[in-house]
Amino acid sequence: MFQDRREAGRKLAEELATLGLADPVVLALPRGGVPVAAEIAEALNAPLDLVIVRKVGAPGNPELAVAAIVDGDPPDVVLNREIVEVYDLDDGELRYLVAREQPELERRRAVYQAGRRKLPTAGRTVILVDDGAATGTTMKVAIRAIKRRSPCEIVVALPVAPPDVVAELAREADRVVCLSQPERFLALGYHYHEFPQLADEEVLSLLARSTNTGTTAKGQGRRHRS
Q1: Whole-angstrom Cα distance, residue 202 to residue 180?
Q2: CB atoms closer than 10 angstroms to residue 56
Q3: Residue 100 needs a FRET pair 20 to 30 A away by CA distance; which of 70, 84, 115, 214 works?
Q4: What is the tens place of the pLDDT at every residue in 196-225?
Q5: How far is Cα 64 from Cα 222, in angstroms, rounded to an integer?
């Protein structure tokens, strides 16, 4: 178990530092991935940005992803086909579930990206970070979206995920670093001693701290804790 997301980020950073990654940029999946990614960005002296993905929950079970959508024009949608089959969802039902989450995706883009330029990823090593993965659907859609931006390598960094999810993500990304791979994967919060819900203000604070300390531009100085 991890004490909190920041500890998980520091432990991931230790593993990533051994890989000799070329010109890394760290992209977090908000909200939970941001505190993890902030620690990685600081340790690797890398810029920090977001990839905005919205989980599409199953009917009656919003924590179980049947799909995920990522900000774009048009948005990318990746289905978790096994879960879709379990719930016997037809195309119309899927369109409804996706459309229901679209306003929150747009809201997050407006809040998180206001006044911020997206970091260039072409030719760079992109480290995609979340605080864990239960099904991998959200991370999968992020990987596929980032591939359109021509990175030289995509590395997925996760504190915890089931072994089958890690194997599936390894087929999508160039590398996967996952610290804990329990066979019996419980809800994500069970793998942390402290796992509070994050507010938008906390995400914005971490991004502002990164911007103000110079890790959102290639080649700028090393961050220091405040």
Answers
A1: 26
A2: 27
A3: 115
A4: 999 999 999 999 888 665 444 444 433 333
A5: 39
